[in-house]
From TrEMBL:
<feature type="transmembrane region" description="Helical">
    <location>
        <begin position="9"/>
        <end position="38"/>
    </location>
</feature>
<feature type="transmembrane region" description="Helical">
    <location>
        <begin position="83"/>
        <end position="109"/>
    </location>
</feature>
<feature type="transmembrane region" description="Helical">
    <location>
        <begin position="44"/>
        <end position="63"/>
    </location>
</feature>
<feature type="domain" description="SSD">
    <location>
        <begin position="1"/>
        <end position="140"/>
    </location>
</feature>
<dbReference type="Pfam" id="PF02460">
    <property type="entry name" value="Patched"/>
</dbReference>
<keyword id="KW-0472">Membrane</keyword>
<protein>
    <submittedName>
        <fullName>PTHD3 protein</fullName>
    </submittedName>
</protein>
<keyword id="KW-0812">Transmembrane</keyword>
<dbReference type="GO" id="GO:0016020">
    <property type="term" value="C:membrane"/>
</dbReference>
<keyword id="KW-1133">Transmembrane helix</keyword>
<dbReference type="InterPro" id="IPR003392">
    <property type="entry name" value="PTHD_SSD"/>
</dbReference>
<comment type="similarity">
    <text>Belongs to the patched family.</text>
</comment>
<dbReference type="InterPro" id="IPR000731">
    <property type="entry name" value="SSD"/>
</dbReference>
<keyword id="KW-0325">Glycoprotein</keyword>
<dbReference type="InterPro" id="IPR051697">
    <property type="entry name" value="Patched_domain-protein"/>
</dbReference>
<feature type="transmembrane region" description="Helical">
    <location>
        <begin position="115"/>
        <end position="140"/>
    </location>
</feature>
Amino acid sequence: RLSCIRNNIWLASCGVLSSGLAVLSSFGLMLFCGVPFVVTVANAPFLILGVGVDDMFIMIASWEQSSRKKEKSSVKSLLAETYAEAALSVTITTLTDVLAFFIGTWTAFPSVRSFCLYTGTALVFCYVYTMTFFGAVLVLNHKREQGNRHWLTCMRVGVGEDQAENSCLYNACCIGSCSRQPSQPEGEHPMSIFFKKYYGPFVTNKWIKPLMLLLYGAYLGGSIYGCTQIREGIDLRNLANDDSYVIPYYDDDEKYFSTYGPRVMVIITESVDYWNETVRLGIESCVQNLE
């Protein structure tokens, strides 16, 4: 927003901070409990950031809708209305995500188990901080707007000043708007208008419903077919860059040596006297017998 009063930069920053607090809390708890930290866990903060920012947008959208419905309501009723609208969807999405990651802890791979433990715990903390910390930030931001205070300095701006004699930069930073008009509460967001007036009636049309069912059936059939084609394993060529020397190496290895089967290795698990000729002859005899 261009208005220095309605600008919500700090609100968005606190939403990202909420995700960061969740990552710190979960990582600290897991490390305190002795859960090993593996390299794959370093990707977890990006997942938590995505979920946390999504929850933040849901909370802000619900708050905006509640404030438009009840412009003169108290902060308590606005926050209650916001939680009534947003908390349900945030709770359901968090539960499904946490369940998915905690199911992943049943795997036999220790690295995957650690990743799922760290990420699932971080999602729990992300939910707690969204419902507590970010809700408090919403109230503080609302009080700042009601007090007609600047988004950065929190100083009261002079909306009643004569803006004609001042520069546009001064009006934007110290009065609230460059348009020589007092900052007013904004109307409904254009995206909300699009979904309510156009997209909603379109998908509920009686001719569109059968088409949606057909599209979903095709999607479901393709998904089931794709699941039947999944094979266990990994192609190491996909882990390298396209111009890496590893690519032609694996191509030649598959072309010329794939018919020989897997490599067989002989491992001696105890200390032996390799300088002793008798020991060396015994090792060579063992290899010949295996061949």
